[in-house]
Specification:
Length: 259
């Protein structure tokens, strides 16, 4: 299994469990996480979901080897749900979602925080949205969720720079709610999860629905724009240079590419 599922006190903990790959999302992990969220949404004994990672990473984002195969291997077989299915599940998840960022979070390992109702982060963890470094576009409605969550200029830097954001910066921006010592992260996140889980699920769902409903149309429109830009850029000169540089273990050089 690429994900571990544990239940306690109406809190379902989902632990991304590809530690050797820094919990990068391959097709199997996208499918497993999508199905785990859908199962938790439908389970009357689950009030809150707590999402974290195993080992030293929260998630290193999309598995770049599979990304390269998607553009170059005619026999590449996508998963049942894939990236789009996971974003659908996050968007539709009706109950509180808490993220405990235990280590590095890249790509979807960072943009998932746009869907979190509460986020906790170890003070040793770091986040990065590497889209410009990969020659692609934003994802997961981050182009609308991040400006709302952390402000336009913070979002512009996070989404455009492909620079690491440390825990103190993430807290100052409002990308996460609390920063903890690594050994205290899960206890702190779980304590807050259990406090919410003691409340009536119907009320939790109502609060979340009334908070998120006004954003739904904006999120849907943002995803369409992002997907169109991503499709245009995927496999283009900048993306090929980024993936080639990754495979060769060097930094990409975009300076000689056409605009």
């Amino acid at each position: 299994m690429s994900i571990r599922i544990d239940d306690d006190k109406r809190v379902r903990t989902l632990t991304l469990d590809r530690p050797d790959a820094l919990n990068a999302f391959n097709e199997a992990l996208y499918d497993a996480t999508t199905e785990a969220l859908r199962d938790a949404a439908a389970d009357p004994d689950v009030a809150v979901v707590l999402l974290t990672g195993s080992g030293r990473a929260f998630s290193a984002g999309t598995d770049l080897r599979e990304m390269a195969a998607r553009t170059s291997d005619p026999d590449f077989t996508p998963g049942k749900h894939g990236f789009t299915g996971l974003i659908d599940a996050l968007l539709e998840f009706p109950k509180p979602l808490i993220c405990a960022v235990n280590g590095i979070g890249l790509g979807i390992g960072a943009t998932v925080l746009g869907f979190a109702d509460l986020a906790f982060m170890a003070n040793t963890a770091r986040l990065k949205c590497p889209f410009t470094g990969l020659g692609v576009a934003p994802e997961a409605a981050s182009s609308v969720l991040f400006p709302r969550l952390i402000g336009r200029q913070n979002a512009a830097w996070v989404l455009m720079s492909s620079e690491w954001i440390d825990a103190a910066q993430a807290k100052e921006m409002g990308l996460v709610w609390q920063v903890c010592e690594p050994e205290e992260l899960m206890d702190t996140a779980r304590r807050h999860a259990e406090a919410l889980a003691a409340k009536p699920i119907s009320s939790l769902v109502a609060v979340k629905r009334t908070m998120t409903a006004p954003l739904r149309a904006e999120i849907d429109a943002a995803r369409e724009r992002e997907n169109a830009c991503f499709a245009e850029l995927m496999g283009g000169p900048a993306n090929i240079e980024a993936l080639t540089a990754f495979a060769q273990g060097r930094e990409p050089d975009f300076t000689r590419l056409p605009a």
